[in-house]
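Here comes a specimen:
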Amino acid sequence: MIELKRVSKSYQNCALPAVANLSLQVNRGEFVFLVGPSGAGKSTLIKLVFREQTPSSGQITFEGRDLSKLKQKELLRHRRRIGMVFQDYRLLKQKTVYENVAFALEVIGRPVKEIRRKVPAALAEVGLTGKEKAFPAELSGGEQQRVGIARAIVKDPLIILADEPTGNLDRNNALQLMELFETINRSGTTVIIATHAWDLVDRMKKRVVAMENGSLIRDEQRGSYGNEHLST
């Protein structure tokens, strides 16, 4: 599904590359944790897969297509196949829960009939039935992140990319969110989560890809966070 071949990403005024000569393959239906200390390159890797950024060298393919060669329409189609979930939720404060999720379909031109069908279904899947008319400021952090997940899954994506999705949540809410991601994954959606939540990684026993200084240092099935949680 996703393959990175000797990918590097450098930034101006940075002595070390954010991603360094990294090769990685993720197959359809996998659940992968990206772990490692701050600055390890996890967020950059997610941005490269979303094609928010392009590599300085190497090749990234998604469903067999070279991401660096996508034209504008193809790039938009690529991003529609990905659901993004962020640490800071990125909800539209002036829109209700329903409107925030519907907006993800409106911007890609989906018909009103489809929106009216899919939005309630997505909210039900994340446990927010009855919250449709609430505004983000009226929700807890956990509920806001559930709206973010509903917004991601309403497009029926092939893959969910989540960058520190539990970073602003308490442990109980974080555990519930991870269990929700696991449910979404069981339906066939590939899930890649960058996280520092070492206790949840250890608990869930999924594939763990560990990074440090932009390099892949460990790739384990049913892995654990390891000693990296001692770093910040």
The radius of gyration is 18 Å. DSSP finds seven helices and ten strands in the chain.
